Amino acid sequence: MKQIALLILFISTLSCAQDKVPIAGDTEFQREINSEYKDATKSPLKDKDLKGFKGLDFFKFDSTFVVKASFKRTPDEDVFEMKTTTTRLPEYVKYGVVSFEIKGKAYQLNIYQNQGLIKEEEYKDYLFLPFIDNTNGEESYGGGRYIDMRIPEGDTIEIDFNKAYNPYCAYNERYSCPIVPRENYLDLEVKAGVKKFHD
Length: 199
Hints:
Shape: globular
Strand content: 15-25%
């Protein structure tokens, strides 16, 4: 009887293990974002998209888009209201400028700090890097993409465009998302990070 009970336990454990589909993704970032979006309590996806969700589409990881940038602090900037896809106007400040090269060409982006978020312990060193590039509207989301950063200790910072993700508005119009400032346009195709969402 004990053996039969153990056999039943083994078979049920095996079937549970087979039911559990591994999280899709080639990198830790890809697996983390897919895991988050698969979780109904955290996901920005609509219910209809969540049902059959297996994972987001990503560009293949490309080390060309992992860059060491020089970081220049801009301490005297005024707080401004960043436009969003709704009437919400969150307060940001231009925190610094990052300069880097990709494929031998020089580029520069502004990096911002959300004035509401810095009041929370978890986000006190959080920086926001939104950008638009020449893949927008074709291979990537038309409104541009974001990268989460942390305040660097020195005057250099690593930017990994393979961690670029879409605003929640790319999946669900009920969200309010910051609109990427025009000055953060990169005149190249950033074939890295999350692709356009096909619902």
